[in-house]
Write a structure and sequence with these properties.
Strands 1-2-3-4-5 form a 5-stranded mixed beta sheet, sandwiched between helices. Helix 1 crosses helix 2. It has one domain: Gcn5-related N-acetyltransferase (GNAT) (Aminopeptidase). With about 170 residues, the chain is of the alpha+beta class. It is globular, with a radius of gyration of 18 Å. It has 5 helices and 5 strands.
């Protein structure tokens, strides 16, 4: 197994792994394209993408991460957006090797922690993260997306809002 930073040549194989993750999670699989994987993910200047490949060059896992800052700890870190290993290679050290490579890449950029999330039902991920030394914290995640995001982004700044606008909670 070899673990390395993703390259443009990985876009099609990486896309297939991302579609598999999305399918497993019950997320849409038709929105992401190999071209978007290359231009919006691999080539994005702040995104770190690490892949694991078998000896024959077949991609067997990947992770994506983005910079974050944790004010409670006063330090930079990485938010791991995706972590996926093909089923046949799970529990063989692939995910740990990928996260170790992410940690090294992040550390070189000033990061001092990884922020990992998993669905409540993904108890295997919870156990894996604990074996890494992670401490679990119950949170509820929310996403403002699609038209709701556009509506929020289109709201005028407070100085130009109507006086009768709905108060914030």
């Amino acid at each position: 197994m070899r673990v390395r930073a993703a390259e443009a040549r990985d876009a099609h194989a990486l896309h297939a792994l991302m579609v598999a993750l999305n399918r497993d999670q019950g997320d849409p699989t038709h929105l992401l394209t190999p071209r978007l994987v290359e231009t919006a993910i691999i080539a994005h200047d702040t995104t770190i993408v690490i892949v694991a490949e078998d000896d024959d060059g077949t991609l067997i896992g990947y992770a994506t991460a983005h910079p974050t800052y944790e004010t409670g700890h006063a330090e930079h870190g990485l938010y791991v957006g995706d972590l996926y290993v093909v089923p046949a290679r799970r529990r063989q050290g692939v995910a740990r090797a990928i996260l170790a490579a992410l940690a090294r890449a992040g550390h070189a950029r000033g990061a001092r922690h990884l922020w990992l999330t998993a669905r409540e039902s993904n108890t295997a991920a919870h156990a894996f993260y604990r074996r890494l030394g992670a401490h679990g914290e119950r949170v509820m995640a929310f996403a403002v997306a699609h038209q709701d995001f556009l509506n929020l982004a289109a709201e005028p700044p407070p100085a130009t809002r109507a006086r009768n606008a709905e108060p914030e909670a």
